[in-house]
Design goal:
Shape of chain A: globular
Largest sheet of chain B: none
Shape of chain B: globular
Helix content of chain B: over 70%
CATH topology of the largest domain in chain A: Rossmann fold
Radius of gyration of chain A: 18 Å
CATH class of chain B: Mainly Alpha
CATH architecture of the largest domain in chain A: 3-Layer(aba) Sandwich
Order of helices and strands of chain A: EEEHEEHEHHHHEHEHEE
Order of helices and strands of chain B: HHHHHHHHHHHHH
CATH superfamily of the largest domain in chain A: P-loop containing nucleotide triphosphate hydrolases
Strand content of chain A: 15-25%
Largest sheet of chain A: 6 strands, mixed
Radius of gyration of chain B: 27 Å
Number of helices of chain A: 8
CATH superfamily of chain B: MetI-like
Largest interface: A-B, 44 and 38 residues
CATH class of the largest domain in chain A: Alpha Beta
Structural class of chain A: alpha/beta
CATH topology of chain B: MetI-like fold
Oligomer: heterodimer
Chain lengths: 239, 306
Amino acid sequence: MIRAVQLRKRFPNGADALDGVSFTVEKPQLIAVTGPSGSGKTTLFRICNGTVRPTSGEVDVLGIPMASARAGRLQGIRKLVAVVYQNHNLVASLSVLQNVLIGRLGQVNLVSAIRSAFLPTDEDVRRVEHLLDELGIADKLYSRADDLSGGQQQRVAVARALMQEPELLLADEPIASVDTETARVILELLRRVSREQGVTVLVSLHQHQYVEQYCDRVIDLRNGSLVRDETLSELGVAT
Amino acid sequence: MTSTSSAATRPVRPFRGHGFGWSNSLLILIGLAVLGWSFNGTSFSLTALFEANNAKSVTRFVGGLFPPNLSPDFLGTVARLTLETIQISIVGTFLAIVLGFPLGVLALRRRGEEVSRPSLGTPLWLLGWSRYYVSRMVLNLLRAVPELVWALVFVVAVGLGPLPGVLALAAHSTGVLGKLYAELFESVDQRLVEAGRSTGASELAVLLFIRVPSMLPTLLSYTLFRWECNMRAATLLGFVGAGGIGSQLVISMKLFQYHEVLTLALAILCLVVLSDVVGQVIRTRVLDGPGVDCEPAMVEVERARV
């Protein structure tokens, strides 16, 4: 599913965001990527999504070598790799429904996408409603994204990612700026998606109690290097 | 010891000089010299207005303005030409939007490693840059030629009347709007664009669902402003035979019918105020209104039923 070998990313300013990171993910799991700010978590996610190319090393995602893939191939693989961003990245002037439907943009043709945006079918609305319901914000379906609180926006971002029906989900600090209740709702859903739908989820987290409570495995980064890669059972934590 | 170590870890601010350096003073001196040179080159003089001969001409002109010509016949002509001016500005702006939008999209400079040479491959990358430069060049050309000059060109091409006026406004405004659209699309938060691309969406889908909605109020505001500019420009196009109220204005001036000129000037003032008011109303509704309602009408109906 993911195979990273000696992954290194050096930015133009000379800073090494990742330095020789290697790991493999073979089965669907909820994996916590931990480490202090600046340790390389976001860069790792961006490389796995093909947004950034590694300086050296190899990374295969769903069997595609991301380091050498051309734009067309990357676009194809991204349909299966969803991302939840720390700062939501929602389109403020669109409704929650329209923002969540953006998650499907890669899977439908442009005409269908335009029709969905202006005249969503009952099926579209039902799917979005179901996702929002799981996240506890079904009543916000027609609200403008910028009318929502930070926590609600983050839930919409999670719904948009799940709308994509991905095989791999990269969640970059999805609970960094939300309250405890929202954090639990989001992590519960990610765990359920991982276990019931067989989606591999990489989630960057700072809170160790959540790592122990929800995750199957932890990858710890420090200054761009992988310092720990263990399953929670190896750590003696029952999940 | 402590202070030494904290000083060592403190980031070093690059030296940029303090206050007014010699380079800033030099720039101001150059600026003043250019200003003086321009005043001199244009023979600028405030006293010229008050010289005996000039003052007499101004008095005669101002005296001739009153009373304005309010005869029904002339008011009918003014109303017809005013409406024609409005029509010229509306059609000219509409065509500029239709042509400026695709040109603006072509002139959009995409950012991110996804659109870098290694990602796209050399042929596609070169094609992207060619598209960018050619469309920018077309927009620059359209924008560089003023409406009045375009009107002269189109009067020669299609004859007198409102049509060359429409085409002139469309040509110049396409250049202006195309460039504005391109730059607005470029200025969308790159993180939003990245979020759109991360779904596997095409660049066109990212444009329609991320860039355009993110910039919609500003796009609308700039387009309305362009319409206001076109309304003002349409009043002048008649000077070269391209229709609108300007055609009557130039006739009245040439025949020294200054009382007609005042009536026309008042009509032009009304036009400008009208475009400003319409622009403000639309802007207020979109930008400052009590939230744009995203909810479809059917939901309201459902709620009412409940």
